[in-house]
Amino acid sequence: GTTQKPVINRESENIIKDLLENLQEDLDVIKDKLCDPVSCEKMTPELWRKYQIAKKCWGCEENLHEAGYNKIRVFDPETKKYLGASHRKCHGKGLMIKDEGKNRVIDHDHITGKFRGAMHSSCNLKLRIDPETIKIP
């Protein structure tokens, strides 16, 4: 559980200092949580069904690959000629990857662990939060 911090006394001579200290403590707690992300909740049959039938990325609302597709288009780096589709682990080293970011992934909240939906790999990476870059205005 969480503990509730004492309320700042508004009549204190050090109200600004107390407020800034409390904000820094809050930031430290938030950073600690973000540095230790919670794994995705156990995928129930219902959650798997939602993932499998999703047609749109919940982030950008563009079409997703069919579930199970998750292949990449492979191009020769010199000729730029299309060589075909391949699974990520099957394609040769040094080949250009054109649409790997469009692969469907399971997105979940890294604080609660709750499944949020199917998403493009590239959209999922855009949601990444770096705890060291959090700023308080």
From TrEMBL:
<dbReference type="InterPro" id="IPR044925">
    <property type="entry name" value="His-Me_finger_sf"/>
</dbReference>
<protein>
    <submittedName>
        <fullName>9058_t:CDS:1</fullName>
    </submittedName>
</protein>
<dbReference type="InterPro" id="IPR038563">
    <property type="entry name" value="Endonuclease_7_sf"/>
</dbReference>
